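Let us work through a complete example step by step.
Step 1: write down the sequence.
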Amino acid sequence: MRKYILSLAVVAAIITTVNASAQFRYGPMLGMDITTMKFNQKLFNVDSNVGFSAGLATELMFPGIGFGVDAGIFYQQRGATLNLGEREVWASQGYGKERCYLHYIEVPVNLRFKWTRMNGLEDYVAPFVFGGPTFSILAAHSDIKALDYPFGDVGLTAGFGVEIYRDWQVSGSYTWGLMTAASTKLLDDFNSKNRTWNVRVVYFFKSR
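Step 2: predict the structure and record it as tokens.
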């Protein structure tokens, strides 16, 4: 019983210390992306397209060590142009260049490291790196009858950025989609995965 009480006391002390020292911030995010859909076979050309993202970003940092976690909830438009007309199997059905829009509700969760010991320079400019999983729920998509779409996607993201005057953050990242983004109905085992470059700007409100 004493060991149980002591363990609870240690956990409570750790949680209290983390809450006291951690700095939590949140703010709006706007961004743009360049996405392509990488198919497991090259049967036709796929052109990258530009999309955008917007939402709420959060950051939890531990002062002194530079490590923390960032997360958010975003709307993101991805997609690519599929040149289906290059193959007779689709050209015979009237398909040509088809713009495939994918609209996701995205929840990224990243570990990050921010350089915060630069003799005061970090008050003006502080670089950071981050990486982690991104969970995406498909909210809507283009009405291309030749394709099937799954419920969502899971990706791995890696990126870097810079914090400016402690309030603004500008970042660039690359996300490797791990699950099928779209598959064709006529051909078995012919599917694609998202590959996305993101550039995002976040304004964080003052930390509490």
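Step 3: interpret the result. The chain has one domain: 22-203.
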